[in-house]
Design a protein that fits this description.
The chain has 9 helices and 10 strands. It is α/β, with parallel strands linked by helices. The strands form 3 sheets. It has a 6-stranded mixed β-sheet, sandwiched between helices. Helix 1 runs parallel beside helix 9, helix 5 runs parallel beside helix 6 and helix 6 runs parallel beside helix 8. The longest helix is centred in the first third of the chain and has 30 residues.
């Protein structure tokens, strides 16, 4: 993508996603994603009903009357975006590619995060860690992330979600909120790695898919290509049995994916490239509050 075109696209995404995060998600994001725990704020005199375990004995001894520690929720988060950049994300038949939608969702989450004074970092992954951007704050950092998402060229076209989640567990020493964005067109199981990661972090899965993965239109003979393996074949979409098998395979795959998320206790949502991702994110936030 040429520099001028890239900057224009970045600006368009910033305007759209910043408005969404400010007007729609600000309050929902704040309540849906909690801080790491309780942080010490101040001390005050003991009042009837206070937990005696909160008494600050050093201050109590100094002033000869009981004082308790006051805690408040530690709101600041570290947010990690795990972004699938494999070949299958370049597919799109109706409104936009899966890669474009992933970029918009990621940008919306990123702007929501900085409104809450959170740090934001990114892991670009295929079947390897393509790039790691450590968590930082600020608009300049987010614009850099958006530019990378729009213009990034992965070294590999294949996908390994388990490897990406395992990397998150190793690289993030403290608890974080991690959004896993992918179409989840995977050939290897990632349940064990996701279970371990979600025990340490708060992992949320967002699946982006194209409607044609769900149902095949009747358009006669077409040539299809696997974006990750390069395998090509001609299929007859006028064949009802073929279209039924395609739909049945999608349902089976989705059921298996949902089962993995349920077993790992990971909140998740699926959105098609021709759907409104705002509605889906609202549903995701609502289920967590």
């Amino acid at each position: 993508m040429e520099t001028a075109e890239l900057l224009k696209k970045v600006r368009q995404i910033e305007i759209k996603t910043r408005r969404l995060s400010q007007n729609i998600f600000a309050g929902q994001y704040h309540s849906a994603f909690k801080g790491r725990g309780m942080a010490f704020s101040e001390v005050r005199e003991y009042q009837y009903g206070d937990d005696v375990r909160d008494i600050d004995w050093n201050v109590t001894a100094r002033f000869h009357k009981p004082y308790v520690k006051v805690f408040e929720e530690e709101r600041e988060l570290t947010v990690m975006l795990l972004v699938d950049v494999s070949g299958s994300l370049d597919f799109g038949t109706i409104r936009q590619t899966k890669r474009d939608m992933v970029a918009e969702i990621a940008a919306t989450l990123a702007f929501s995060a900085i409104q809450n004074n959170d740090k934001i970092g990114v892991v670009f992954f295929s079947d390897k860690i393509e790039k790691y951007i450590p968590p930082k704050k600020g608009r300049k950092h987010i614009l850099f992330i958006i530019r990378e998402m729009l213009n990034f060229k992965p070294e590999s076209l294949r996908t390994n979600v388990g490897m990406a989640v395992e990397f998150l567990t190793k690289v993030m020493k403290h608890s974080c909120t991690a959004f896993l964005l992918s179409d989840f067109f995977v050939r290897n199981s990632f349940q064990d790695q996701l279970t371990i990661a979600n025990q340490k972090h708060d992992v949320v899965a967002i699946q982006v898919y194209d409607q044609r993965a769900k149902e095949m239109p009747n358009v006669g003979l077409i040539r299809v290509k696997d974006a990750e393996t390069g395998h090509e074949m001609v299929i007859d979409t006028s064949n009802k049995k073929m279209r039924y098998a395609h739909a049945a395979h999608w349902l089976k795959r989705q059921a298996e994916l949902k089962q993995v998320f349920t077993k790992c206790n990971v909140d998740n949502v699926s959105v098609a490239t021709n759907e409104d991702f705002v509605k889906m994110l609202r549903m995701l936030f609502a289920m967590r509050t």
